[in-house]
């Protein structure tokens, strides 16, 4: 059984790294967003409890989120293991997760931190631009228009950038996330579970490094 947590700042490529792990090891990908939506749709007691907070515009307390995680980790698709994405976000949540994995006898195998220099992350995250006419989304680095300055879909020539994709906003978002991430990295490092992987390389090389870490 392979139970892992992927850590990394926005834009580090956690989603890209998850796909080949799921394919090779047949583990369940558990993201907190999906988990909340499923529990509310199924109207489980914990899902309904979480919905009360969300409907009121309040943050869902750690204990409720932890109950949701525990409920999710008992589903049949977790037999081979799991990748947790978006939980834990704090050391309090990490301690709650320790209690959950102990109760369910599903200890963590590895915590992988995908590391990318901040200037590269700013470049990646602020490279998105949108066609003013039809709303098609492009990325200067990974998905540019076929003809420079011309929308592939509608031929429009005017583009704009969303406020939260602008470099100064991206820098602030990274700063906030780094402040949250650092104590978690220290927490799992102290437990001997942490492995750092260089995320500033081709996706297949990132996966090869993750494979090596999981074989350790």
UniProtKB/TrEMBL annotation:
Residues holding Zn(2+): 131, 134, 151, 154
GO cellular component terms, A-Z: cytoplasm
Protein name (Swiss-Prot/TrEMBL): Adenylate kinase
Family matches, as HAMAP family: Adenylate_kinase_Adk (MF_00235)
Predominant location category: cytoplasm
Oligomeric and partner information: Monomer.
Record field: catalytic activity: AMP + ATP = 2 ADP
Domain of life: Bacteria
Domain comment, as recorded: Consists of three domains, a large central CORE domain and two small peripheral domains, NMPbind and LID, which undergo movements during catalysis. The LID domain closes over the site of phosphoryl transfer upon ATP binding. Assembling and dissambling the active center during each catalytic cycle provides an effective means to prevent ATP hydrolysis. Some bacteria have evolved a zinc-coordinating structure that stabilizes the LID domain.
Protein family per UniProt: Belongs to the adenylate kinase family.
Compartment(s) where it occurs, according to its Swiss-Prot or TrEMBL record: Cytoplasm
Location of region: NMP: 31-60
Pathway membership, UniProt: Purine metabolism; AMP biosynthesis via salvage pathway; AMP from ADP: step 1/1
GO molecular-function terms, A-Z: AMP kinase activity; ATP binding; zinc ion binding
Organism lineage string: Bacteria, Bacillati, Bacillota, Bacilli, Lactobacillales
CDD domains assigned: ADK
Enzyme nomenclature, EC number: 2.7.4.3
Residues noted as binding AMP in the record, renumbered to the chain: 32, 37, 58-60, 86-89, 93, 162, 173
Region forming the signal peptide: none
Domain Adenylate kinase active site lid: start-end pairs: 128-164
GO biological process, one term: AMP salvage
Positions of ATP binding: 11-16, 128, 137-138, 201
Gene that encodes the chain: adk
Function, in words: Catalyzes the reversible transfer of the terminal phosphate group between ATP and AMP. Plays an important role in cellular energy homeostasis and in adenine nucleotide metabolism.
